[in-house]
Amino acid sequence: MNKIVQNYIPAAMAQLEKYERLRNIKDLKIEKEMKGYISSLSASIIISGLEPTLAFYSSKENSAKANRAIVLEWISGVLNEEESYKSKSIINLFKHALEPSTDKRKLEEDILNAIVALKLCIRTFELK
Question: Which residue segments constitute the domains of the chain, with CATH numbers given?
Fold first, then answer.
């Protein structure tokens, strides 16, 4: 397993647990749609590109069963634990990707690694 992904796992688990605590659900159940959103995000980045995918996932007006933007919040939370992102405190991944000073290759690689960590961690939760 990629060393970076291993380093992201604790932060990914913390993001998922935080999400469930905020929802006041005792059994730590996450909507099953979220697992699909996480899985399709990496494929979409590879096929469509970083900015278009982040724009699509950032949209709050959609017919999705669950809010896809939450997945981007989880990824931001994972990246904000990374030393190189702590000083930037990424809140909105899409806006961050559009900034001229952003290294898009590194951001894309880090997002893909965070997605893998989230995929691994979400398996430990009961999905509803």
Answer: 3-127 (1.10.520.30)
